[in-house]
Every structure is written in structure tokens, then in C-alpha cells.
Request: fold
Amino acid sequence: MVSRLGDSKMATRWGICTAGQISHDFTVALKSLPPEDHQVVAIAARSFPRAQEFAQKHNIPRAYASYEDLAKDTEVDVVYVGTIHPSHREVSLLFMNAKKHVLCEKPLAMNLREVQEMVTGAKLNNVFFMEAVWTRFFPASLEISRLLAQGEVGEVKMVRADFGSPIAHIPRSVEKELGGGALLDIGVYCVQFVLMVFNGEKPESVQATGVCLDTGVDEAMVVTLKFSRGRMAVCRCSVTMELPNDAVISGTKGSIMVPEHMWCPTSLVVNGKETKYPVPEPYLPINFTNSTGMRYEAEEVRQCLLKGMKESPRMSHADSALLMEIMDEARRQVGVTYIQDSQ
Reply:
């Protein structure tokens, strides 16, 4: 007998955890996909009025005042976790222990130990689990991987990725207890991009330098990664200034440039020739650039569930662990510690 989730004629039924800005955008992105494939059936927030308001805005049948109630909803197949990252581990494990599949926002957790606990929880409960690194699933990103596999730019020798934005006025970007800091909040996109280019290879060395705010988190960081065969990468991130916000892959036979918004790419310049990959228009106003592009990670979840897979080969558990291991080491060198590091 085919399970419900293995039947391509049945919609993947989503529960949304939290009624924040990112959850709004994810729900809008889901609505750009065929309703026979994706349905949002429930929303949970810590405040019932917020959950109700979200449900009305997005035409969601059920609203809950607690994450526990969402976990008990038997008609939810997979939960999108859009909470702030210090709570990702606890909240994801709550849903996994209720046998729900989980798509959890980046960064997956606060450190490698927490990531490993979450992966263990997913395996123990035999559920699908993925870090929502949406960038990896954009058509432009798939094209980058295809071009690299074909040797379009020869051997890649250097990668540079930048993400800097003046967002220090947003508490979750700068407050230590909210998981603030440039690297975890936005630098994660630069590091994951490098790891995507180098196919999840572990770097031989990590060198980080940074500047910290009075709150004890990193205001800006530069992370240099050295890989085998003399290949290198530089990641730059900041929460107080605008950086070029692009990425460049330089090889022995040419280059691939991802213009501004490298974390949600809608165009590529390959050896000087530009190709555009537009995302669908949102049906409601959205909070973040190109965020209807979250549809691609949602569809990846559906395709994995249809195949009975418990992780995505494009953003695997090992990918998330390596990403966090590098960020842990970079933070250690810059002197950024969170309470979760001492637990």
C-alpha cells in the first residue's frame, strides 16, 4: 500500500509554525504552487489572536495558540518552522517527536551539537528533515551546479560571496539571546554558497576575522576557506552596511557571477552572458526580496516525500552539519559565544 505521502495525486499538507514575516512569505510562496500539490491546513503562534489573523489573511482552516496543538493535528504532513533560531532545536524536535516531517529555517540551530541532536531526532522518528536553505533550490542555483559539473568554467579556483545589509535596528539581528550576529543570520548564505560550489567538501582550513557589537555578537565577519588543490573562498557579511551582495565563481576557463541578492538569485552572468530566472509574482505583499522563491524548497520537500526520502540530496543532513561546523569555528576565532555553547 502506498502511503498518503507517496501518492502524487494527494496534496502535501503544511502546518506553519509562527505567524512572523518569514512565515507570511513562505505561505505566499506556497500559494504560487498548484493547490492540488500543496495546501496550508494549519497555523500555530504563541498568541491565538496572531494565529487567527494569519489564518484569515491566508485562508487557512485551523489556527492554534500553541505549537503543541499543531503537533497533534493529524492532518498536517510537514511543518515549516519559522521561529527565531535559538528555538529551532526545541521546536523542530517537538514536531519530529509527533512524527511530523520538518522544514526548518536557516540557520538550523545555534551550533553543531544542536544540529546533531536534531538530525538524531529526525532519524529516531523516521521523518523527513531539511534546513530551509532556499537558495539551493532556485533555478539559477540548479544551473550553477549543472554548469560546474560540465566544467563550463574549468577548475574552480576561487569563490567570493557577500551579504551585508544595515539591519542592526532589528533586535533579532543584534541581540545575543535572539541569536543575533552577522554570520548566523545572513553570513550563513555565503558559507552555504561556497559549500554548494565545492559539492559539500570540507575545507582544509577556516580563518575568520570580525568586529563585534557591544551586545557581544559579530557586526561584520570575513571568513576565508581553503580547500584541497589550492582552491579558496572568501565570505563577507555585515549587519551594519550594504555590501555588493553578489557572488563570483572564478575558474581556470571563465567565471560565473551571481548579481545582487546572491541568496535569492534571479540571474546569472556566465562568461559575460546574462540569463534571467524570474520568480513568480506574489499574490500578497511580501517582506523579503524574491521570497516567492521559497516555492522551490517547498517543492523539493514534496518531491522527497513522494519518493519516501528522509533528507534532500541537495541540502542533506551532512551539508547542514558541515555548514554549522564551519560557522562554529569562525565564531570561536572571532570570540562570539551563545548560551547554547556552554550547555
In short: The chain has a mean pLDDT of 97. The longest strand covers residues 218-227.
